[in-house]
Specification:
single chain; mainly alpha; 3 strands
């Protein structure tokens, strides 16, 4: 299945710059849920999509395998590793802690211009959802949430958050449509509440909203993965 990565410009340069560019595109796609857990990544397909040769794609995949993000297999193919319920539980607890910190720090220092940009991103999520565009939905949702964290102006913390998203991103699409529909009915416009809290520099409320969202979403994924493990056993 061809991945939708329209938010990233096409690769056009050679050498190390091109390799880094392809690496960043694959990494972003993993964080934003464009690859599913267990999915094999096909070098030729990615090279065609990124309009580049096979070499930078192959080198990028090797780099991600070395970093533990992807999993190499005996036949030289590469796949997104599946996770157990226990691992997602651990990642949930870590994500709640670090992303709660990021949104709280963002609330302390965010500017009106940054809030306005985040509101535009939140509106883009609604548009994608109304149109039933799953690829755009997961992309815009990720861009909104990462945008909130980046407003913290804590680059080391952001790198930690991105490393966690690389592991849970491949499960994002499992939230659709059941969980997304349920949470919209139950929690309403939680992104709007976060934005209002950010605008008011209310760190406690912003942190509470993001912690509830992470606990709910990752808790739902844990339920699905636990059920799948039970069926396999």
């Amino acid at each position: 299945m061809k991945q939708s990565l329209s938010t990233v410009p096409p690769a056009s340069r050679e050498g190390p710059i091109l390799r880094d560019h392809v690496y960043d595109r694959i990494r972003t796609a993993l964080m934003l849920g464009h690859f599913m857990a267990g999915q094999k990544l096909v070098i030729r397909q990615l090279a065609s999509e990124y309009e580049t040769s096979l070499t930078p794609v192959r080198e990028s995949l090797r780099r991600l395998v070395a970093e533990g993000v992807l999993e190499g297999e005996p036949n030289r193919s590469v796949r997104v590793p599946p996770m157990t319920g226990a691992k997602i539980r651990e990642l949930r607890d870590i994500r709640i802690a670090v992303e709660g910190l990021a949104v709280a720090r963002a609330a302390e220092r965010i500017t009106p211009e940054e809030v306005a940009e985040l509101r535009r991103r939140a509106d883009a999520v609604v548009v994608a959802r109304d149109q039933g565009d799953l690829e755009a939905d997961v992309t815009k949702l990720g861009e909104f949430q990462l945008g909130v964290y980046r407003a913290s102006a804590m680059p080391h913390l952001i790198r930690i958050i991105e490393s966690l998203w690389l592991q849970t991103g491949p499960y994002l699409k499992l939230l659709y449509p059941k969980y997304i529909d349920t949470v919209m009915e139950r929690r309403g416009d939680w992104r709007g509440r976060i934005l209002d809290a950010l605008e008011a520099h209310d760190a406690a409320t912003a942190r509470h909203e993001i912690e509830i969202d992470l606990d709910d979403a990752l808790g739902y994924l844990i339920t699905l993965v636990d059920a799948a493990e039970a069926i396999r056993s």
